[in-house]
Amino acid sequence: xxxxxxxxxxxxxxxxxxxxxxxxxxxxxxxxxxxxxxxxxxxxxxxxxxxxxxxxxxxxxxxxxxxxxxxxxxxxxxxxxxxxxxxxxxxxxxxxxxxxxxxxxxxxxxxxxxxxxxxxxxxxxxxxxxxxxxxxxxxxxxxxxxxxxxxxxxxxxxxxxxxxxxxxxxxxxxxxxxxxxxxxxxxxxxxxxxxxxxxxxxxxxxxxxxxxxxxxxxxxxxxxxxxxxxxxxxxxxxxxxxxxxxxxxxxxxxxxxxxxxxxxxxxxxxxxxxxxxxxxxxxxxxxxxxxxxxxxxxxxxxxxxxxxxxxxxxxxxxxxxxxxxxxxxxxxxxxxxxxxxxxxxxxxxxxxxxxxxxxxxxxxxxxxxxxxxxxxxxxxxxxxxxxxxxxxxxxxxxxxxxxxxxxxxxxxxxxxxxxxxxxxxxxxxxxxxxxxxxxxxxxxxxxxxxxxxxxxxxxxxxxx
Length: 464
Prior knowledge:
single chain; Luciferase, domain 3; 13-stranded mixed β-sheet; alpha/beta; 3 domains
């Protein structure tokens, strides 16, 4: 991991990392990282370092310094509430804090010291502990080894033809898989400069010359809503979308405005990025491509049978490979229940796969598998169609109990209200998908219930 940063044959880059108005050269980053490593070496108690992961150069220096000192890092979301932050700090076993003292009063603060020794991270040592979003309870710690991180980045570099000649631009948070692992450690490993815009708004992306741009669907939706900024991205070699489904309308608008169809990919904290479309390969809205690197996938029914690779049959997505976690931190029961007897990680996501191995994600099994009238329907497939309607800003589809059908499909929609919209949306699904997949009811709402990480809480909708 961090191969290019540590390679003495690689010349200094004055623009290795740019965050907002601040810039670090490669050599200056290593110099400051050595000071962090020196401070960590003076601690009386060894253990993980928790970092208040705001998007600035101080965070970058701290993260890199700890990793190159052989200290595992626990990134803490800067917008975490007291309960979530306390859980992460206690659960991770962090012994030192890099951030505002008042946010972690029980932990000693990190102090920089004389230049310490920088070492290549041990391949099988825990480099990062990232936390899940907590949609099914308290966030779970996911230890990531340096070997797994490097394997994931190398696989994506191959899939995206990512080289030191690229310039990566994004404004994503530095505490999760997308923004931190791909968006910060990725360019430091590959050797390409990073321009972090602090905020991922269209004007900032347009003003930052680059060849490779990362965004989540919300970012790309805002970009296409600002056509002048979107057209500035015609200089890009590659636009990458992930972390959530990209609406087909946004996909099409991006392609029309920028000249580039976006590459969609799929992953989760527990598995790293496991699927991605390829540069120069087939790019279709809603399809997240092929397994990357040495990753393997399979689709299984509830009874454990293989699902046909016909592009429409739905099954539980299971994954194995070098980027998959070995276990949740301190949770042996959760670990055991997340793996099959033959060693495949059960993602909890529903997917379909075509004859060529391309995948599309249809939702979460726990909340998005709807059994209605003897049919199995993926909520994500219905949501993708509803998002294509120009009046729809957000949508959540759930199954609610029904005496006749078992479950009936209900769509909760945030958007521009107009007479007859509910019937329009029902008809849209009925004409695009099978008749039995249409919502039996459309509910127009002002907003959708979300947890602290912004994930829609579908159980509340189904219960309400």
